[in-house]
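Internal tracking record. Fields below are filled automatically when a chain is submitted to the structure queue. Please do not edit lines marked as system-generated. If the sequence contains nonstandard residues, flag them in the REMARKS field before resubmitting.
Queue: standard
Priority: normal
Entity type: single polypeptide chain
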Amino acid sequence: MTKPITVDGALLRSMPLPEPGDGGGKEERGRVLVVGGSRELPGAVLLAGTAALRAGAGKLQIGAPASLGIPLGLAVPEAMAAGLAENESGSLAVEAAERIVELGNKCRAVLIGPGLDEDDDTERLTRAVLEGLDGPPIVLDAASMMRIASCREALARQAGRLLITPHTGEMAGILDIDKEEIEADPAATALRAARDLGIIVVLKGSCSFIATPDGQRWSCSHGNVGLATSGSGDTLAGFMTGLLGRGAEPVQAALWSVFLHGEAGNRLARSVGPLGYLARELLREIPGIMADLRHDGTGERP
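SYSTEM-GENERATED OUTPUT FOLLOWS
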């Protein structure tokens, strides 16, 4: 089997992101829906939603448990915050699925998962949303992707427009295999999951591997150890969703977001230090990186 293609600035320049016209408004840049949050992790959906805007999405809607709706609306004044049905633990109840589908079908991209509890309600909610959404690309992150192997009909319905973003531990849970097996050959594992589940897989790590069901594979080691910090994965999922909202194809959004995330970490390592920068600090780096990539195709600064 051939080696995965390396994701770098030159590759991304060969697949430029959609750019709005000079007179383009918010709708041209895309409306996105970011669903997540819980009593214990209210900030995850905030990070992911803000990341989607930083990646260039035109309009942001956040769907979160009802008790978080007003606080999130105040914390992210750029967003429409919808308070959704909440369960006793403070995460989303399965009854929220109908409203998520209603909102999501009017959007260009949907992200589900940041901050949700890993429980039966999240599994049932994710299944119902996958069965109800009709058209927009979908990113599943965190708890929303952990039991997707049990809903293959819903996955098949979203074939070609569904992405997941697991780290090694999450991938072990998704495939029900040992973590050590994944670490021995992460590229092969990403491909196995993509083919088995029929979805695009972004397996996160010090070197991330991206795979599609038809056997395409890429690798990206752009980044540094400082990216292994709380909330970092939420920002990556948000970047991906924002790029999808702008009109990027699913694979294109996956490759661009992994590189942008890594380069944001590299820039913060230089300006702040290799350890100790925060996930929320990644967000402000993204517009400049995208501008630099348009200019010279590398995204890197001396």
